[in-house]
Each structure stands twice: as C-alpha cells, then as structure tokens.
Write a structure and sequence with these properties.
The chain is built from 19 helices and 20 strands. By secondary structure, it is of the alpha+beta class. It is globular, with a radius of gyration of 23 Å. Bound molecules: flavin-adenine dinucleotide (FAD).
C-alpha cells in the first residue's frame, strides 16, 4: 500500500500539489473528524487536501478514554437515537472497518443496592446490548457478589452486593486517527501535518480555500485552493471560523484527565465502571496497564497544552480508592494525560444539528463547520460534513462509502491472526510480539518487518520501553508521518504514558532511530530530546499545582520544535 505511505518525501510532494492544484474539498484539522472527512471525500471520488497544524490526533483525538461505546450514561438520559447510532458505529468498527485496532473490553458494574438497582441497571444494560445489534460482543451477565470478587479481587467486598458484566470496545485513538488519514491517502487524499491554516482565501463573498503555513522548513505560506472548505478543528472551531469573521457553531473546551497505572496495582480480569456524583468513572484495561478516568472541568487556558493539576489527580485517586482493597498512591501513577472535549455551546443550539451531539453548519459560503460529537461517531460526523460540502459543489456526488471501506491493515487481518504462531516461527519472533504488531498495524505488520530485513538489531526492544521494537520507530517516521520525537513517544507509541519516566529515558534512542529516516544531524537530535524532556518536566510541574496552569513547554524555556503550532492562545 505505497499510496498510504506518509513519509517526509510524501509530505513535500503533498505541499507541492497543494500549491499547484484546485481541490473539491480542503479540510482543516487532522483529528479523527478531519481525517474521517478526508477519507469520506476521497472514497466518494472527490479530490481532497487536508492540513493539520501539528500531528495526526495531536488535539483531543489522542487524549480520550479510548472507548468505542454508546455510553450507558446517554441511555439513562433516554437519548436512544444517540446510543443506537454510536452502537451501530461500534459494530462496524469491530467487525468491518478496523478489527485490528478496535477490541472488545469487558466492564463490571458493581451493584450496591439489592432489588431495584439490579432491575434498573440490568434492564438498561439489556437494552444497550439489544441496541448493539448483531452479536459483535458477548451479551451482558448478572453476577453474584462472589463472582464479581473472583473477576475483580481488588474490589472491597463490603462495597457491593453483586454486579453486572457487559462489553464495550476500545481503541488506541491516536493510532486509529493516523490509520484513517493513511487510508485517505491511499484513496488519493493529499495530506500535510505541521501545516497550519492561518487564513481563508476568498472569491468575493465566498471562501475559496485556505492559506496554510508550513511549520517545518522556512515557515512559507501556501494558498490551497478548494471549491469547499471543511473546518474540523475541534476546540479550535471558533478560532478558524473567525478567519471568516463570523460563524454559527460555538465550541467550549471542557477538560478531562486520565491516570495510567501498572496492571499489577489492581488485581482484576475486567474493567470497572463506577458512578460518581457528576458522571461515571472508568477503570479500563490497557495492555500491561490500567487507564483511570475521567474528570470534567472548564478550561480556558492554552488549548494546545491542557494539563492535569493536583486536584484532578487526587479526585480520581480518591474515587477509585473508595472501592479498592489496596489504595493507589501518587507513586503508583505512571502516566497522566489531559484532553479537551469540544462541547457545543451557545448559538450552536439553533444551527442545523444533526444529532444531540454534533453540529454541521454551512453558514459561511464555501465553508462547512463540523464540531462536537464523540470519537465513536466520527464516521457519521465526517459523512454529514461531506454531504453538506457536496451541496456546495456543482455536480452530483456519490453517497458516502465509508461504512464499507475498511482501514488499511484490516484486509486479511483475521487470517493473519489465526496464523500468528506460524508467522512468529517464520519470522523468528515470539508470538507475543506478533500479536502486538498485528494489533497495531494489522496486515501492515509485514511491511514493518520488511524494514528490518537484514538488520536484526531493529527487531530488538526500545531502550526503557521494551513493549516496542526499534523498527517501529523507523516505520513511524517513514510511513506514519512522524516528524518529531514527541509524535513517536506520545502518539505512534504510547511510551509517554506507559512508563514512569514518561519516555524521557527512551528519548535519545528513539531520536537516533528517527534521524536515520529524517536526516537529522546531532544538533537536531539534541534539540528534539531537550524539547521532549522539557515538555515532560513542564507537565510534571503542572501536576504539582493545586489549580490549572498551562503545561506549555515553551514557558519553561524549551525550544519549540513546531514553531507557532496551532493556537493563537498558545
Ligand atoms: C477526556 C476525554 C475523554 C473522551 N473519551 C471518549 C471516549 O471514550 N469515547 C468517545 O467516543 N469519545 C471520547 N471523547 C471525545 C473525543 O475524544 C472527541 O470528540 C474527538 O476526539 C474530537 O475529534 P476532533 O477531530 O473533532 O477534534 P481534535 O482531535 O481536537 O482535532 C482537531 C485538530 O485540528 C487541528 N487544528 C486546529 N487549528 C488548526 C489550524 N488553524 N490549522 C490546521 N489544523 C488545526 C488541531 O491540531 C487538531 O489536531 C473524549 C474526550 C475527552 C476530552
């Protein structure tokens, strides 16, 4: 799938094409919604360009709870259509679009009151299961107290009288978004990261494209001409609408944080969902770790660098410790990450909302804005946005094809999984490594392994992050669009949240590997490592503060590797 390669050469070529061609659609934003819109447009046969200011999923799309779910919470609010839509998407993702990336995950809902709660929650979960449609996941089960404690020995016995187990799904959000982008490239989309929209082009009243700044080389501006522009910039929606001077969709940022702790700190074979005063709290299995989350507080600082504070961390620890036999302490926390929910607010209420969760607005001539929603329903948001943009093109446009367009790596995945022991033997790897690679690349795994042909050292684990192989770093730079150390440590791999050193100790090894593909000299390698380590230090510092402060590494004097990236508020 060479068309799906996103190396530095492809980026240069994409920028040249952006200068030379006129596209049907120009998308701003490379989160899951923008990448989804690029794939939707390309797979309908439209020409499409996409500019992303930083990296694939660098905004909210790498910072979610990583659940592909309908949301039991919405069911309780009787929002059936939203739950049904999300569960339909969950089924599609699990079975057709990317079974290599989206995996089932079991949850226990502990019951604390006898009859009414079992009846109430049991009915809800049964309905949830039914709405999920064809059996992509095992059905829910009522559990006795003994069975709950067998599945989740770390639960305090006196906090429950029984439980219900149900299944949802999970995904590595950052990898999934990047795979959506690569699939769009495979179908002809022209994509560039580190390319920030700094203004809109005009033909009279109408928006006619995007002025974009290349944040790598010399900061050159490029005029990307398009018949329609799609603004898919999440919490930056208002900022981009302001380029046009007006807009109808308004987005408010709400911060949610997560903690990552090693798997051995909680003894359990299942995830857990707990009710809190305001919402719910999840304990989610994540490889050799657990993810705990989340919180919900307003954020009005730098949109590019949301950060957790001490209060956020204490809130999560306090709630989860209320039910654990052995409490977690701050010393158990390996990783912390914060994200901003793009919530619709104010006037958006009156725009053409297609569901309670997302809005698509064609209010600006030549530009469609799409915002809100959740990760699980990105494909529907993308389809709605491209449908709206298609109405601005002077020709018939085919209907969306993404419900039956698998992402790269999905084709042949089932067979490769069945053959994983044979593949391990043939390639001289442990089967655990093959499973890890299949779940990250699908059948793209063979392309990754081919890079290590004749170089056995590339099949060795990374320094201080032995879940990952050295060759994966090379592949991230040559095929997956990683341009900076942060891209690899934070999004292509999740080393930044999966190790107590937060990736600082792996930084040099990873930078050296990346330099092979990106041609970095010693000075650049050093700058990348310094920048990464300053970012980690800034985040650690923010986590000691009682209230919100920004973790913008630049404020601690770190050189910024992607100059001027994203926000005017940065
Ligand atoms: C704490 C938390 C937990 C969540 N958990 C879940 C969950 O478990 N399941 C679920 O379904 N959903 C979840 N969500 C919601 C989900 O993560 C978001 O709805 C989704 O990721 C939003 O994607 P997006 O593409 O719209 O925005 P983003 O991912 O933020 O993408 C916008 C992109 O636009 C780029 N950009 C901004 N300005 C410019 C510019 N001028 N030029 C070029 N590019 C620009 C940014 O760099 C960014 O990459 C969660 C959200 C949070 C915060």
């Amino acid at each position: 799938m060479s068309g799906a390669q996103l190396g530095p050469g492809e980026r240069r070529e994409a920028l040249q094409r952006m200068k030379d061609e006129v596209f049907d659609i120009v998308v701003i934003g490379g989160g899951v919604t923008g990448a989804g819109a690029a794939l939707d447009a390309a797979s309908r046969g439209l020409t499409v360009a996409l500019v992303e200011a930083r990296d694939w999923a660098a905004g909210t799309s790498s910072r979610s709870s990583k659940l592909i779910h309908g949301g039991l919470r919405y069911l309780e609010q009787l929002n059936f259509s939203l739950v049904r839509e999300a569960l339909r998407e969950r089924g599609l993702l699990l079975t057709t679009l990317c079974p290599h990336l989206v995996k089932p995950v079991p949850f226990i809902y502990p019951l604390t009151h006898r009859v009414w709660e079992r009846f109430y929650v049991g009915t809800g979960v049964l309905l949830y299961d039914r709405m999920g449609g064809a059996r992509a996941l095992p059905g829910a089960k009522h559990l006795t107290r003994r069975k709950v404690l067998e599945l989740f020995p770390s639960l305090k016995p006196d906090t429950l009288i029984g439980g219900i187990q149900y299944h949802d799904a999970q995904v590595d959000d950052a990898r999934h978004t990047m795979m959506v982008a690569r699939t769009a490239a495979h179908y002809g989309a022209v994509l560039a990261t580190s390319t920030r929209a700094v203004g809109l082009l005009r033909e009279g009243e109408r928006v006619a494209g995007v002025r974009a700044r290349d944040l790598e080389g010399d900061g050159q501006d490029i005029d990307v001409r398009g018949r329609m522009v799609v603004n898919a910039t999440g919490v930056w929606t208002d900022e981009v609408q302001e380029f046009a001077g007006r807009g109808r969709v308004h987005v408010r940022a709400s911060k949610g944080i997560h903690l990552v702790v090693p798997r051995d700190r909680i003894h359990a074979d299942s995830g857990l969902i707990l009710r809190t005063e305001k919402s719910v709290l999840f304990v989610i299995p994540w490889g050799r770790h657990w993810i705990l989350g989340t919180t919900d507080t307003d954020w009005d600082l730098d949109l590019a660098h949301p950060a957790a504070n001490q209060k956020d961390i204490d809130y999560l620890l306090e709630h989860v410790n209320a039910v654990l036999t052995t409490p977690l302490s701050r010393e158990d926390v390996e990783g912390v990450y914060a994200g901003l929910r793009p919530l619709l607010s104010g006037e958006s209420e009156s725009t053409s909302k297609l569901s309670r969760e997302h809005a698509v607005s064609p209010a600006i001539s030549g530009m469609v804005t799409v915002a809100g929603g959740k990760y699980t329903t990105y494909r529907v948001m993308a389809e709605d946005a491209v449908d709206a943009a298609a109405r601005g093109l002077d020709r018939a446009v085919p209907a969306s094809a993404t419900a039956h367009t698998p992402l790269i790596g999905a084709d042949g995945y089932g067979v490769a999984w069945n053959r994983r022991h044979r593949i391990a033997e043939e390639r001289g790897l442990h089967v655990v490594r093959v499973e890890h690679l299949l779940n990250r690349y699908g059948t793209g795994m063979f392309e990754v392994l081919d890079l290590a042909e004749g170089r056995p050292e590339l099949l060795r684990p990374l320094a201080h992050a032995d879940d990952y192989l050295a060759v994966e770093v090379l592949y991230a730079a040559s095929h997956e669009g990683a341009l900076h150390l942060d891209d690899v440590l934070t999004r292509r791999t999740r080393i930044s949240i999966e190790t107590f050193d937060r990736g600082a100790d792996s930084a040099e090894h990873v930078a050296n590997l990346m330099s092979e593909v990106l041609g970095w000299d010693d000075e650049t390698c050093k700058r990348e490592v310094e920048h990464y380590q300053s970012r980690v230090a800034a985040e650690r510092e923010s986590q000691l503060q009682h209230d919100d402060v920004t973790a913008d590494a630049a404020r601690l004097g770190a050189p910024d590797v992607r100059m001027g990236a994203v926000s005017a508020s940065a």
